[in-house]
Amino acid sequence: MASSTKSIVDFGGGDGVLIDVESHITKGLPSVTIIGYASKAVNEAKDRLRASFANSDIPLPKKRITINLSPADIPKDATSLDLAMAVAILASDGQIRMPAKNYAFLGELSLDGSLNSVRGLIGRILAAKKMGIKTFYIPTANLEQAWLIPEIKLRPAHDLRDVYLDLAGILALKTIPTGAGKMIAASKRTEVIDFSEIAGQVVAKRALEIAAAGHHNILLHGPPGTGKTMLARALCGILPDLDHSEVLEVTHLHSLSSSGNSKIVVSRPFRSPHHTASTIAIIGGGPKPKPGEASLAHRGVLFLDELPEFSHYCLESLRQPLEDGEVTIARVRDSATYPADFILVATQNPCPCGYWGTSKPCVCTAASIAKYQKKVSGPILDRIDLHLPVHDVEHKKLLEKRTSISETGAIKPRVERAYAFQRRRFGAARFNNSMTNKEVRELANLSPAAKTLLDSAAQKLGLSARSYVRSVKVARTIADLSGEINIEPEHISEALQYRQPAPTL
Question: What's the whole-number mean pLDDT along residues 364-371?
Answer without folding.
Answer: 92
